[in-house]
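Private note to self, pasted from the team thread so I don't lose it. Backbone tokens:
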């Protein structure tokens, strides 16, 4: 018998004999390797951060057990756990009389030497069993001491027949290194409160925005009561990093406090210290909700759902759909309560048959298809009229007064066409038929559940140009003067309905690489259904387009959201971004994987390729799988379906062509000097001053609470641990080269702490129940940004040496908000929202620490939103936004220390204006994290050039240059002196703390 093939999905790191479990999260992009983050220290947390990669290599494959694996068995280990990610080619007997889940768990128990699962019956709970002919696929959810494990799902595949049952393979993730206790130190209410506050901070914490006429509501950080963010806990969940992180899983719902976009955020709050360690959105949209520039734009009123396009030249419109008008015949009027074949006209002018229903003899016909599941569950495919509904009203909820689309006759008229109802209802039937006919699947859940589509949804009465699956239903935006209703393209409907299939099978977590897999699979099947139903050849240059039929006037190629045949590869196109941007690149990176699947379909033919991808999705993939695991799943599925050696090689070549090979992440490089590698934190900034940097860090797998380190920017000497190892999360540090100050989140409160760089005891400066968004220090004086979402609002506090309690620059008045402070040269600058006449005004105020006098800076125009502030020896600088209806362009403004001589060093109204975020200054330069404004010509897909980069301007605005030409996301710049800056860089797919002494130039 030959030795089983052993491969590694990714280089892993282990400490001692115990598996860490973190590598699986790394592969899925869920270890918070996106910005902000920080590097690891050794397990004792008393040493210095060590270079990443000090230990490499994954665990050896374990093949011992009561029954050795058969000849031809493949065992693929997963770094960070002793349980293999994939075991294929088995033919081992299982209990034929037991329930499938019991037989599967009995197999895992009998082969303990192979799977290293101590007690499968105790630690694996049944999720469901998929039966397809003689095949059974059992999904099992890992539980650690009774608590579910995020992404811990293991799959056992079996065959039945002639009274026998045989195990043919297994796959998935079971984390063997989990030892964390399951008793929380934080109460559930505190976790919910901090999750809501963290969500609001992530959405708009780096801006202070002027409210409308009713300013009282905005001062509390919310809009009206029905639009407020609200949280609900789903209980405890173990996040599988290292020994495990016990968290509360909190779902936050509501609307973006400024843009009004819907919010459905999953937040995992550490149950020991109450700090949010993982966040991602639960809304699976067709396109990134922030438009062509994927950088989030706090403070804008941009239209939600502005589309992203593939950036290829427009070609002639082509439509190979067979004409259907002549074949559509309405059935004669039927008895009440019986199915009827009606008709309607799609937005492209094609007349199509519709399966509808007439509930009452004298009532209207409604878009409810009772025929497709009449012989099974009796459930329906229903299309609902949501034209009077806001996206907030339908997100994760079901409005009480929602009604099906109706018509007085079975021939649905122009109103149903223009709302997108005809397209949605017809397309839902097409997608249902595809899954039923090609894969034997009934309904999205495979068990004949109802299929519901909502059409015509708006955003606060304005057009909503997007579509999404919210976990229970499809929601299609109304469209606008440029875009048709989002149900107008069959591949869009197929995409959204496939999200429902994914959720009921592999349940790929919608973030990072696993989220990009989710999008890729949805695109693949949506496109496959559209191409097959239209009769279009896959050799057609436009066959790979998604959403090409949505535009009213633009040609298909210019209109499309994505092109599966765009040739994207990991080496040249993978973009490392934060979860705050496109959920970690779920759309931006999806065509790398969907492109490989597209090539597969071209080379193997639609039927075989579709069966392979479907089998990989339903029987091999698990929630945290990334690109490499996705490749392995597809290859294994091809073999299981009897693909020849040549066909299997074709599958492998498809992935090779797109750079999806083991270790592909290691090929991504950067051009700046690295201070800390593979940082593993979230939601925390870096700072610099006096030749020193300071940042929060975790350990290699991100499982430990964050600690604050400081080091010299010139790289000399080892970084110094500043914070105590006390189980709290120490975040958002700042330094002036003498002292480091930071914020500590614990189970009962939040504290501001400080410690001299030269050493000495940690000093407590403030204890509060509110959030502290940032701190700054200069010559012993500390300023901080206190945000109490559930209390007194947002205020800048000031602590001088020896002060027993802080002073607030605005007196903590309930009618005033202050935030975004900076300190230096004897002054404090901050943004201020204050009452004026019948409303509110925004301005930047400068406080002289020696005299106690505060002055408002001269303004040009009326700012609607203010960003970060900075002070150098001669001026105060800030981000200023007067026009919230543009693409997000921001003015960079300066004034004298006395508030006079205000001058725009970069105007939002001039060509080349930046969409700026963080701001930091030295005596000679102003540095921002910013993205360029869209060109406005409708071309250009979201790509590297659209991401936030570090841009540096001369203090007078005479020079604008990129600090680094690295690709990927660059955030949290911190100026030291001259042109030297440190920042967090996501180029490599990880987050590194990097620096450069001078700008790189224009970067092409």
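Design output:
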């Amino acid at each position: 018998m030959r030795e089983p093939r052993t491969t590694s999905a990714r280089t892993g790191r282990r400490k001692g004999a115990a598996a860490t479990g973190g590598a699986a999260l790394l592969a899925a992009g869920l270890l918070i390797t996106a910005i902000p983050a920080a590097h690891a220290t050794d397990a004792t947390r008393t040493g210095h951060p060590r270079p990443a990669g000090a230990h490499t290599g994954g665990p050896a494959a374990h093949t011992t057990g009561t029954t050795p694996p058969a000849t031809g068995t493949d065992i693929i280990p997963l770094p960070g756990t002793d349980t293999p990610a994939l075991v294929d080619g088995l033919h081992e007997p299982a209990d034929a009389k037991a329930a499938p889940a019991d037989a599967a768990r009995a197999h895992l128990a009998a082969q303990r030497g192979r799977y290293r699962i101590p007690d499968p019956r105790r630690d694996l709970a049944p999720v469901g069993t998929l039966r397809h002919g003689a095949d059974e696929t059992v999904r099992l959810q890992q539980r650690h001491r009774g608590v579910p494990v995020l992404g811990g799902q293991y799959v056992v595949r079996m065959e039945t027949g002639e009274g026998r049952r045989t195990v043919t393979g297994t796959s998935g993730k079971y984390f063997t290194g989990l030892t964390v206790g399951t008793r929380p130190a934080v109460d559930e209410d505190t976790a919910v409160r901090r999750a809501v506050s963290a969500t609001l901070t992530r959405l708009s914490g780096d801006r202070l925005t002027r409210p409308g006429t009713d300013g009282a509501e905005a001062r509390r950080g919310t809009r009206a009561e029905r639009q407020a963010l609200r949280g609900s806990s789903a209980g405890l969940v173990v996040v599988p990093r290292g020994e495990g992180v016990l968290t509360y899983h909190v779902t936050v719902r509501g609307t973006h406090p400024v843009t009004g976009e819907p919010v459905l955020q999953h937040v995992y709050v550490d149950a020991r210290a109450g700090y949010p360690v993982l966040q991602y959105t639960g809304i699976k949209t067709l396109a990134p909700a922030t438009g062509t520039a994927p950088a989030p734009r706090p403070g804008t009123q941009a239209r939600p759902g502005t589309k992203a396009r593939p950036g290829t030249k427009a070609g002639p419109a082509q439509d190979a759909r067979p004409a259907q008008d002549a074949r559509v015949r309405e059935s004669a009027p039927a008895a009440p309560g019986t199915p009827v074949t009606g008709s309607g006209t799609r937005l492209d002018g094609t007349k199509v048959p519709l399966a509808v229903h007439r509930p009452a003899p004298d009532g209207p016909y409604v878009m409810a298809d009772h025929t497709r599941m009449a012989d099974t569950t009796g459930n329906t495919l229903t299309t609902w009229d949501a034209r009077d509904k806001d996206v907030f009203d339908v997100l994760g909820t079901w409005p009480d007064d929602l009604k099906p689309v109706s018509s007085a006759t079975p021939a649905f008229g122009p109103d149903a066409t223009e709302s997108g109802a005809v397209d949605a209802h017809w397309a839902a039937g097409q997608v249902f038929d595809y899954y039923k006919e090609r894969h034997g699947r009934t309904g999205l859940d495979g068990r004949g559940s109802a299929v519901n589509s909502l059409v015509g949804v708006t955003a606060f009465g304005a057009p909503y140009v997007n579509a999404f699956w919210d976990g229970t239903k499809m929601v299609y935006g109304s469209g606008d003067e440029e875009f048709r209703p989002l149900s107008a393209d069959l591949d869009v409907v197929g995409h959204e309905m496939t999200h429902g299939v994914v959720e009921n099978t592999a349940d790929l977590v919608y973030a990072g690489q696993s989220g990009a897999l989710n999008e890729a699979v949805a695109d693949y099947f949506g496109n496959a259904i559209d191409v097959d139903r239209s009769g279009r050849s896959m050799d057609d240059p436009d066959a790979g387009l998604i959403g090409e039929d949505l535009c009213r006037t633009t040609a298909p190629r210019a209109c499309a959201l994505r092109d599966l045949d765009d040739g994207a590869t990991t080496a040249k196109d993978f973009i490392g971004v934060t979860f705050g941007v496109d959920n970690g690149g779920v759309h931006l990176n999806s065509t790398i994987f969907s492109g490989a699947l597209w090539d597969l379909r071209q080379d193997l033919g639609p039927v075989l390729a579709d069966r392979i991808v479907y089998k990989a999705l339903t029987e091999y993939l698990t929630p945290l799988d990334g690109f490499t695991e996705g490749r392995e799943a597809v290859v294994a599925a091809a073999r299981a379906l009897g693909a020849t050696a040549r066909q299997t090689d074709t599958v492998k070549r498809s992935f090779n062509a797109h750079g999806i090979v083991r270790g592909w992440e290691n090929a991504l490089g950067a051009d700046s000097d690295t201070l800390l590698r593979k940082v593993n934190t979230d939601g925390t900034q870096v700072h610099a001053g006096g030749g020193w940097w300071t940042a929060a860090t975790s350990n290699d797998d991100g499982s430990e609470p964050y600690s604050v380190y400081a080091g010299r920017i010139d790289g000399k000497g080892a970084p110094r641990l500043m914070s105590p190892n006390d189980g709290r999360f120490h975040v958002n540090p700042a330094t002036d080269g003498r002292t480091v100050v930071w914020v500590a989140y614990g189970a009962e409160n939040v504290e501001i702490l400080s410690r001299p760089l030269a050493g000495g005891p940690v000093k407590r400066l403030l204890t509060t129940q509110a959030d502290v968004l940032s701190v700054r220090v200069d010559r012993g004086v500390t300023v901080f940004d206190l945000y109490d979402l559930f209390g007194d609002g947002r205020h800048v506090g000031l602590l001088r040496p020896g002060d027993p309690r802080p002073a607030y620059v605005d007196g903590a008045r309930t009618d005033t908000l202050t935030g975004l402070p900076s300190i230096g040269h004897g002054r404090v600058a901050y943004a201020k929202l204050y009452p004026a006449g019948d409303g509110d005004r925004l301005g930047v105020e400068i406080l002289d620490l020696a005299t106690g006098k505060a002055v408002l800076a001269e303004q040009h125009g009326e700012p609607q939103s203010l960003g970060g502030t900075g002070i150098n020896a001669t001026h105060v600088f800030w981000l200023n936004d007067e026009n919230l209806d543009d693409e997000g362009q921001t003015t960079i403004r300066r004034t004298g220390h006395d508030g006079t001589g205000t001058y725009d060093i970069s105007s939002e109204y001039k060509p080349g204006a930046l969409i700026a975020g963080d701001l930091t200054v030295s005596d000679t330069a102003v540095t921002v994290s910013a993205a360029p404004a869209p060109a406005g010509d409708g071309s250009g897909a979201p790509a590297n050039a659209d991401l936030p980069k570090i841009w540096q301007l001369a203090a007078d605005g005479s020079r604008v240059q990129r600090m680094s030409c690295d690709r990927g996301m660059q955030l949290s710049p911190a100026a030291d002196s001259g042109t030297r800056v440190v920042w967090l860089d996501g180029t490599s797919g990880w987050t590194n703390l990097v620096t450069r002494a001078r700008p790189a130039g224009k970067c092409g």
